[in-house]
């Protein structure tokens, strides 16, 4: 790869796994704390309500409601634990690449996503101990069978505990009737979203609230950050002064600091 690209460095877009290795404080203070407190509270509540329901049948509906919420809390704990494993050395880490963003003298946004996945696939084969191949499927949006296969794959993947998938146009930068199309969209699984939105997000009253979200602001931020990121890479490979690269980087950081609906 070094010889083909005539480079001695690569800029990759990748995910470091497990995310517990880089988010121990978040795991301890937020996810684990919520799970532990919910389980403890529901355990005590169920003991008391079960005893009361044995004497007064009218309390049964309240016991059943708490039982349902207890099961959702258990699901929350199971969901976040899937993405955690012990890390004692570098051998316990996995790097999952999915974009070859740039190399010496070139930013690879003119290559389609198939090229990126195939190129990085050959890189992962060279070191499977550290690098984990990203699975992908090409979908024909005008073919119902192709769509059905992709949906089945997503369902099977998420039911096995997978986070979900990221949907992208084939071209790295795609244009539609209204300009540049959003470069990607995360389609997370039902149980992974329990980590994001909370143990009880699947209850009807919460789903109704989540469906009413406005996503325009989030989309706008994503597109501006994408454009600034590409511009930063272009300036870097042209060997412009670092202050010029940092202008774009600071622009992304400024956009990240803007308040966004936490439910997004």
Uncertain runs: none
Structural class: alpha+beta
Helicity level, as a percent range? 40-55%
Overall pLDDT: 88
| Beta-strand residue fraction | 5-15%
Q: Kindly state the number of beta strands.
A: 7
- Give the count of helical stretches: 9
Instruction: Report, as a whole number of angstroms, the end-to-end distance.
Output: 38 Å
Across the major sheet, the strand order is: 1-2-3
Radius of gyration: 23 Å
Structural summary, described in words:
- This protein is an alpha+beta fold.
- Among the domains are: 61 residues; 69 residues, no CATH class; 52 residues.
- It contains nine helices and seven strands; from the N terminus they run H-E-H-H-E-E-H-H-E-E-E-E-H-H-H-H.
- The strands form three sheets. The chain has a three-stranded antiparallel beta sheet with strand order 1-2-3. Strands 4-7 form a two-stranded antiparallel ribbon. A two-stranded antiparallel ribbon has the order 5-6.
- Strand 5 and strand 6 form a beta hairpin.
- Helix 2 packs antiparallel against helix 3 and helix 8 runs antiparallel to helix 9.
- It is elongated, with a radius of gyration of 23 Å.
- The two termini are 38 Å apart.
- The mean pLDDT is 88.
């Amino acid at each position: 790869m070094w010889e083909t690209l005539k480079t001695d460095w690569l800029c990759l877009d990748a995910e470091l796994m497990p995310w517990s290795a880089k988010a121990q404080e978040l795991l301890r203070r937020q996810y684990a704390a919520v799970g532990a407190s919910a389980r403890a509270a529901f355990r005590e509540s169920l003991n008391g309500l079960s005893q009361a329901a044995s004497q007064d049948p009218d309390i049964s509906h309240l016991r059943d409601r708490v039982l349902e919420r207890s099961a959702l809390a258990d699901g929350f704990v199971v969901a976040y634990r899937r993405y955690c494993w012990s890390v004692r050395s570098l051998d316990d880490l996995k790097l999952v690449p999915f974009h070859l963003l740039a190399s010496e003298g070139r930013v690879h946004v003119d290559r389609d996503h198939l090229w990126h996945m195939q190129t990085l696939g050959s890189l992962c084969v060279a070191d499977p101990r550290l690098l984990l191949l990203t699975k992908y499927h090409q979908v024909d949006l005008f073919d119902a069978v192709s769509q059905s296969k992709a949906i089945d794959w997503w369902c099977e993947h998420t039911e096995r505990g997978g986070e979900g998938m990221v949907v992208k146009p084939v071209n790295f930068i795609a244009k539609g009737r209204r300009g540049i199309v959003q470069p990607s969209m995360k389609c997370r699984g039902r149980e992974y979203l329990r980590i994001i939105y909370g143990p009880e997000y699947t209850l009807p009253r919460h789903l109704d609230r989540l469906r009413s979200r406005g996503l325009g602001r989030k989309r706008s931020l994503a597109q501006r950050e994408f454009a600034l990121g590409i511009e930063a890479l272009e300036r870097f490979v042209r060997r412009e002064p670092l202050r010029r690269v940092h202008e774009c980087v600071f622009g992304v950081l400024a956009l990240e600091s803007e308040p966004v609906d936490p439910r997004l």
